[in-house]
Amino acid sequence: MATLPHERANVAILVTSQTLFMIAMVTVMTLSGMVGQQLSPDPALATLPIAMTMLGTVASTLPASLFMKRVGRRLGFITGAILGGVGGGLVSFVGIALGSFWLFCAGNLLLGLYQGFAMYYRFAAVDVASPAFRSRAISFVMAGGVVAAFLGPWNASAAQHWIAAAPAGGPYLVIALLALVAVGLLSWLRVPASPTAQAVDVARSLAEIAAQPSFRVALLAGAIGYAVMILVMTATPLAMRAHGFSMGQVVFIMQSHVLGMFAPSFFTGGLIARFGVDRVVLAGTALLAAAALVAASGAGLVNFWLALVLLGVGWNFLFIGGSALLSTVHSAAERGKVQGVNDLVIFALVAIGSLLAGQLLHRLGWEALNLAMLPPVLLVALATLWWRQRRVATASRQA
Question: Of 33, 46, 49, 239, which has fewest CB within 10 angstroms of its CB?
């Protein structure tokens, strides 16, 4: 079935807004740990600004979903971009200019609020797309990160010296400016109205929805895949600098990683449609396991590069697979609470992972940190196999 012009226009707005948002997040992941290390009174707190970003996401993700259920996607996205993107970028810049670690953390907390709203871009793609186009619409929105793979690390490096009075502050001003651009774009977004009150009255309870095996697998795939990825990604710049690599080499590795995260999005939706979400999720767990083993085998530039690319592609398969599966377990009336709880759990684990990154790297070292990622990845694989076996058994009984 051909897509309609308004579908394509809405998805294009979401793709562009996702790109602008991801430039902000890639900048944070590349730079905030090193800025935190410079400003922090304790080296173990170096990744606290990144953890604050994830904490801001955790605190805002469920309220963001409920707020958008009340006022609509467009106003919700604009609110998040203004308060989180513009506000967070400016407060982070001021924190750097004043040499205040805690004000810089507060700015990163606001950037987490930006993420708390922007992570619903992928679900908005489901709202504006016809059923046959939905998995691809999610993929296209996530593919916005491909441009961010180049511009995020470039911003983190090239804009550092733009403001002489605030070294490393320039990238955060760029974040604020790009968020303003996103506000302008999002004002043109047109998303179908939320379900009527009558429809909401017949929605199932969250406990009924959570009892579905497919919901549990979707949640595990998204939450564990994201937490493992963010923990290793957050630790990577610090680990590379500790091993004597230059900032240019760090930027190259982070670019490659983010490209691995988002470039597969052009075909992940097609893979799900052709092979099924279970196979794509299982492939994602295999890639994450391979990334951990490559990283644990050495600390050369090739090891970092291959491990981070595998980590990015594995995350892509798990996150898009989990998001696509989640869209099948709830009705339109249930989507606000289901999507909100899903992202609340995901970013709670992500916040824990980013907070632990500095501590684990400090105490365990790079190789052992990566090996510690294998058990949770195995849990996702086993849960997916269990779910697939249940489906096969149910189909056999019905035949």
Answer: 239
| Angle (deg, nearest 10), helices 101-118 and 335-364 | 140
With H, G, I as helix, E, B as strand and everything else as coil, classify residue 19. Answer: helix
- The structure tokens listed for 182 are 């996103």
Q: Residue 237 maps to which CATH number?
A: 1.20.1250.20
| Rounded average pLDDT over 22-28 | 90
Q: How far apart are CA 332 and CA 350, in angstroms?
A: 27
Closest CA to 334 of 186, 189, 126, 187: 126
Distances (CA, A) of 340 to 60, 66, 113, 277, 319: 9, 7, 14, 21, 15
301, 372, 225, 311 alpha-carbon torsion, rounded to 10°: 10
Alpha helices in 33-100 (DSSP H): 33-39, 48-71, 73-80, 87-98
Instruction: Tell me the pLDDT band of 3, cut-offs 50, 70 and 90.
Output: low
Query: Are the CB atoms for 370 and 232 separated by under 8 Å?
Result: yes
Contact call for residues 260 and 309 (beta carbons, < 8 A):
yes
CB 190 within 8 A of CB 10: yes
Domain assignment present for residue 344? The answer is: yes
- How many domains in the chain? 1
**pLDDT tens profile 56-82:** 988 898 889 889 888 988 999 999 999
Give pLDDT tens digits for 174-203.
999 999 999 999 999 887 665 444 444 467
- At position 233, the amino acid (one-letter code) is M
Domain that holds residue 274: 5-190+205-398
Gap between the Cα atoms of 210 and 120, Å rounded: 20
| Whole-Å CA distances, 251 to 22, 152, 176, 247 | 15, 9, 21, 6
Q: pLDDT tens-digit profile of 283-314?
A: 999 999 999 999 999 889 999 999 999 999 99
The closest alpha carbon to 113, from 95, 128, 94, 92, belongs to: 92
C-alpha distances in Å from residue 83, one per residue of 91, 106, 235, 372? 11, 12, 28, 36
User: Do residues 233 and 54 touch, judged by C-beta distance below 8 A?
Assistant: no
pLDDT tens-digit readout, 224-268: 999 999 999 989 988 998 899 987 898 889 889 988 988 888 788
Classify residue 196: in a domain, yes or no.
no
Nearest to 109 by CA among 73, 64, 56, 168: 56
